[in-house]
Design brief:
- With 818 residues, the protein is of the alpha+beta class.
- The chain folds into five domains: 57-136, Alpha-Beta Plaits; 142-278 and 400-456 and 765-810, no CATH class; 293-377, Calcium-transporting ATPase, cytoplasmic transduction domain A (Distorted Sandwich); 469-495 and 645-763, Rossmann fold (3-Layer(aba) Sandwich), CATH 3.40.50; 500-644, 3-Layer(aba) Sandwich (Calcium-transporting ATPase, cytoplasmic domain N), CATH 3.40.1110.10.
- 47% of the residues lie in helices and 19% in strands.
- It has an eight-stranded mixed sheet. The chain has a seven-stranded mixed sheet with strand order 16-30-29-28-17-26-27, sandwiched between helices.
- α26 links the parallel β29 (726-730) and β30.
- It is elongated.
- Mean pLDDT is 76; it is low at 40-59, 275-288, 390-398 and 540-568.
Length: 818
């Protein structure tokens, strides 16, 4: 039998899950059920975006190769991907490279005996990029990059304003005949015009416009000309011609065109980067959550060592509140271990000697000694590596503007050369032929193309923010409109993500006494269920009551025996002891036990039939049953659960009404998903899915159903969010999940998710309208420029007008109802 899961191909911990009707062995029940449902789907088909090239590249990477990720500063467009891959692949010892413009990441597979990530970073840094390990100061570096972009944009706009002011005061009036042309040759005027304009223009074109010029160079060297080739070509042509005019005593200068091109495009690019700058955010700054040092116990005592130096069999000491460094087995101590960061399970599980623990989990209320496993790995680090791996792959779609550029740019460049040559052949002066060629380049300068997507997306992002959604990946604003399947995580997404006492059954006592005794003991416990019981007793909220273990009914009173409020908060519990699955203590001379029903199954405690019936009723409702007993007998049951969000059904129904398939993927047990399975618009519920397998489930869904959007909040959702075509996370969830997502819901709950889809559909429509206008504009203006009907100045004005129309169309009201 294979040691790896048939579905997600990750190691099977413990006894594998099997079924006679399903071929293979699985790491969890969830993987088994997913394979049963979609087993005939070829998982390789999911990677179609990567193409055969990815498969070939992976095939060339030896099994003993190491993988590193580099955060790259300076990627300006998708052409940078091919250029970086080509450059980094030339480093000796590098087996394969994958670059991603969307996440500004470089994934490198290399031979550690021959090279290292630092050398790869140096190779691309020599070309004007900066590459560093993402784990080191990524958030700070991202803020620094954004600050530089902001400064560059401000300088470009100010420089453009300065040049245009001089043009308005001196140059345009002379062109229009208001001043005689000799006015520009007068010494005082000449100094005020022909000295500052070239200087400022040089600064704007070559310093502010450096990213554009570099992108044009990179795209040409990579053999994939992009829109920046036209932008750079038009700006440089206008600048070079104008500089020639100044040096030869001419007065027909087009520095305004060059400056306007660079300033407008830089501003548009800044808008896009501002939307995108949180895409990586602090994914690389996870040093707080990642364990780098560990306490090792040996014959010489306890010492601190680097986690990387741990070996199989080492015994590590995990203090209360600390994280387990690596996967292993408990050899000493007992503690409630919070694995929510990794597994998504909302309730910590008590671990003792012989139990397996996951690297990255937290010992919440006790000290553990953990023996490191054979593989010296951390599940948390594997999840993080899986996230980087998915985000760094080439799964994103190329920008529509660059797709058009693949045909449009070579056509315009060729057209400009042919037109200028034709005018020369027909006997036109060289200056006139060059002017016509520049007009062709400038009038086609794709500011409208360049702004068509980012401005529409920025408007969509702004509207989404009004609805309580922060978009961190611009592709999401359009891509959500094409989603076929919406996969929801349960805990913290469809539910509130916190435990509450929802069911109270007191068949052997009164409700007030039950709450009083339970809260008094649980007040000293460190567990979400204990916190929920104490909060319920202190707040005495209205709740469901299970009378005599029967049907649910609402009861807002505390019962005949008092409210259990003040007494619970002031009662003193003696001999408190926290168990593996509960807690006990002495209250007013009475021994009280609170915990799992199994604690009452022995001979020391009586379990009346009425309480046993109440336990079954609570569990059938999908709640966690906590039994409360004293004087040697169980007295009642408290049911706690993570309650569904109020708007979950409305959201599911609205998305399903638009023709989308709704599924739920959760690490929780199937008993806790009954309400979602019962909803007619929920197509499938995949319960018990381990975090590593969630990404595999999403990939299967992509292969079987089409485009998939994942909505989640936990760190264990991060790989699934990244593996989905689009990911939406809740800000109340973990940082890693929100950074893996394309959009983050900050307020408005699930209703904001539905509004985000509406915004996406409108944004996609606006983008298409903008491109339609841009294409139509070029169809009209290019022939006019080629015939000499449009000079570079008019071309710049037409270009600006085209961009303004695009902006105006993008900024129209979205018409989304309240």
């Amino acid at each position: 039998m294979s040691d790896d899961c048939t579905l997600c191909e990750l190691p099977v911990r413990g006894e594998p899950h099997t079924d006679p009707d399903v071929e293979g062995s699985f790491c969890c029940r969830g993987c088994l059920e997913v394979y049963r449902t979609m087993g005939d789907v070829d998982p390789e088909a999911v990677s179609a975006d990567g193409g055969d090239a990815d498969g070939e590249r992976d095939a060339e990477v030896p099994d003993d190769a190491e993988t590193a990720f580099l955060a790259v500063d300076g990627m300006h467009c998708t052409a940078c991907e091919a250029f970086l891959e080509s450059t980094a692949s030339e480093v000796d010892g590098v087996y394969g490279v994958e670059a991603s413009y969307a996440t500004e990441m470089l994934k490198v597979s290399y031979d550690p005996e021959r090279t290292d990530p630092g050398e790869v970073g140096e190779s691309v840094s020599r070309l004007g990029y900066r590459a560093n390990a993402p784990e080191v100061g990524t958030a700070v570096a991202a803020e620094e990059r954004f600050g530089r972009d902001e400064l560059r944009t401000v300088l470009g706009v100010l420089g453009g304003m300065a040049v245009m002011m001089i043009y308005v005061l001196f140059v345009y009036p002379a062109y229009l005949g208001i001043y005689p042309e000799s006015f520009l040759h007068e010494s005082a005027t000449s100094v005020m015009v022909f000295v500052p304009i070239p200087l400022i223009s040089t600064f704007v074109v070559f310093l502010v416009g450096y990213p554009i010029l570099r992108s044009a160079y990179v795209s040409l060297r990579a053999g994939e000309p992009n829109m920046d080739v036209l932008i750079a070509g038009g700006a440089l042509a206008a600048y070079s011609y104008s500089l020639y005019e100044v040096l030869t005593g001419g007065v027909v200068i087009y520095f305004d065109v060059a400056v306007a091109i660079v300033a407008v495009v830089t501003l548009g690019d800044f808008v896009q980067r501002r939307v995108k700058r949180r895409a990586l955010g602090s994914v690389g700054d996870l040093d707080f959550d990642r364990v780098t040092e560990a306490l090792v116990r040996d014959d010489a005592g306890t010492r601190e060592v680097a986690v990387a130096d741990l070996e199989p069999g080492d015994e590590t000491v995990v203090k209360r509140g600390a994280r387990v460094p690596l996967d292993g087995t408990v050899v000493e101590g007992e503690a409630a271990v919070d694995e929510a960061l990794v597994t998504g399970e909302s309730v910590p599980e008590t671990k003792g000697p012989g139990d397996s623990v996951i690297g990255g989990s937290i010992a919440t209320d006790g000290r553990l000694v953990v023996r490191v496993g054979e593989e010296t790995t951390s599940t948390y680090d594997r999840l993080l590596a899986q996230l980087w791996n998915v985000q760094s792959g080439g799964g994103g779609s190329q920008r529509l503007a660059d797709t058009i550029a693949a045909l449009f740019v070579p056509f315009v460049l060729g057209l400009a050369v042919v037109v200028a040559g034709a005018w020369l052949a027909l006997g036109a002066p060289a200056r006139e032929a060059v002017t016509v060629g520049v007009s062709v380049l400038v009038v086609s300068c794709p500011c409208s193309f360049g702004l068509a997507t980012p401005v529409a997306v920025a408007a969509g992002v702004s509207r989404a923010a009004d609805e309580g959604v922060i978009v961190t990946n611009t592709a999401a604003v359009e891509g959500l409109a094409d989603v076929d399947v919406v996969a929801f995580d349960k805990t913290g997404t469809l539910t509130e993500g916190r435990m509450r006492v929802t069911d109270v059954a007191a068949p052997e006592t009164d409700e007030g006494a039950l709450l009083r005794y339970a809260a008094a003991v649980e007040r000293d416990a460190n567990h979400p269920v204990a916190d929920a019981i104490v909060a319920r007793a202190d707040g005495n909220e209205g709740r469901h009551a299970l009378a005599d273990g029967g049907a649910l009914n609402v009861d807002a009173t505390a019962g005949d025996g008092g409210d259990g409020t003040g007494d619970a908060s002031t009662a003193t519990v003696a001999d408190f002891e926290e168990h593996r699955r509960g807690a006990e203590g002495t209250l007013d001379g009475t021994r009280v036990l609170v915990g799992h029903p199994d604690l009452f199954a022995g001979g020391d405690w009586a379990l009346p039939a009425s309480v046993e019936s109440a336990i079954g009723a609570v569990q059938r409702e999908g709640a966690i049953a906590t039994v409360v007993g004293w004087d040697g007998a169980a007295r009642g049951v408290l049911g706690t659960r993570d309650t569904p969000r109020e708007d979950w059904a409305e959201t599911v129904e609205a998305l399903a009404a638009d023709g989308r398939t709704i599924v739920v993927v959760t690490g929780d047990d199937q008993s806790e998903t009954a309400a979602f399975e019962a909803h007619p618009d929920v197509e499938d519920v995949f319960a018990g899915v381990l975090p590593q397998a969630k990404a595999a489930v999403v990939e299967r869904l992509r292969g079987a159903e089409g485009t998939v959007a994942m909505v989640g909040d936990g760190t264990n959702d991060a790989p699934a969010l990244a593996a989905a075509d689009l990911g939406v996370a809740f800000a109340s969830g973990t940082e890693l999940a929100t950074e893996a997502a394309d959009a983050t819901v900050t307020e408005g709950g699930l209703r904001s998710v539905r509004r985000l889809f509406d915004v996406a559909e409108t944004t996609r429509s606006r983008v298409r309208q903008n491109f339609g206008w841009a294409l139509g504009y070029n169809v009209i203006t290019l022939p006019a420029a080629a015939l000499g009907l449009v000079d570079p100045l008019l071309a710049a004005i037409a270009m600006a007008a085209s961009s303004l129309l695009v902006v105006a169309n993008s900024g129209r009201d979205f018409g989304i109802g309240e």
